[in-house]
Fold this sequence. Notes:
Elements: H1 6-11, H2 22-34, H3 39-56, H4 65-76, H5 83-90
Helix pairs in contact: 2-3
Amino acid sequence: MAIAKKSDKAKRSEVVNIRVETHQRDLIDAAASLCGKTRSAFMLEAATLAAEKALLDRRLFVLNEEQWQAFNEALDTPAKKNEKLAQLLATKSPWE
């Protein structure tokens, strides 16, 4: 299994403990080994990706009246001209 760099370890200061069943631990260990990672590194990466996905997948958000007005104003405001974006969109892709 991969060993975390000392500088990576020094940056981490919090500990998270969870209880798992043996078959779950074995499955996680097998996957981590295949990826060349420690159990902790594998679990941290998987949990971080799941957390990001959960936060990004939110489709419902609640705004008070002032926030709702600001949101609508932002949507109604015409986009500013962006020359660099226009150039990028006009550039032919390498696979075309």
